[in-house]
Structure prediction request, 341 residues.
Amino acid sequence: MYILRNIRWQVVLAFAWRYLLIFTIWNTVVYFGCHFLEHKGVNLHLPFQPISTIGIAVAFYLGFKNNASYDRFWEARKIWGGIVNYSRTWANQVLHFVTNHHAIEKLSVDQLHKIHHELIYRHIAYINALRLNLRKPSATNAVHHKNRVRRKYSHDSPGDEHWLSDVTPFLSESEYLNYCKAKNPPTQINRVQGAQLRKYGEDMGLIDDFRHMEMMRVLEEFYNLQGKCERIKHTPFPRQYGFFSKVFTWIFIILLPFGLIGEFAKMGHDFEFLVIPFCVLISWVFMTMELVGDNSEDPFENFINDVPMTALCRTIEIDLRQMLGETELPEKTTATNGVLL
Prediction:
């Protein structure tokens, strides 16, 4: 997620330079082509009113698309806000619900701390596994992963090296090997949490029935939040909106110089060349609106406009480990070039 108040021009140009070049070439060709054909008695000037009507329609269409894309991003951010809050609740419950109060056989402080450590660390593994699972490329967003600009501003990838560094340290080796074989590792990690609660509750008496139900309710909420993330991930933005917004935008951009050149001609023959810079500027504005919506529709792709799941996972890790009483904590994730991932 880009967090600086103003977007740097290096970032803008990284996305815009190809389009600016295309717009400049196209409008220059139209300008000189119209001049050449005018000498042949052919007038390609179009009335500006119908073109402006198309522009208004395209602007409304792009506004709808951008609102819908932002809704997907904001819903994803609210879901991860819920994951942060319930993670803290989970750690608090582990520390205060898993006790010797009803234990069949009393455990030492160190043994109890080991159980707390296991349950909380497994949850940290869960959120990191969920993050990496959501960032796996899917068929609906594969085109974005091929984009060089997207790769330039991306940092994290769902490769094995990140699973080893972000998930393995919080699990036993045997657990991690079992999860590697799973189609959906975070689902299986949460399942094991439930199995461990039953063991500590029914078999060892460390959790009474009421507290066991409360902790299972929190695990259920994690499944609900995970499912909401997966719904956004695996339900692409309706392609009829994504596709036709591009088509309509390009139709407007292609027709624009044929309408504007006549308007500048009314100011005098010497002013007709202004059609090039003005058409480039207007085309860039419309294309930027199109790209903003296009790059916001998939909020889990680890890109410049996406939900900063890496930073959120690190925040959860710091909070939970501090609740365990640890003092050697990792640093918070900081923005790189204004991008928080």
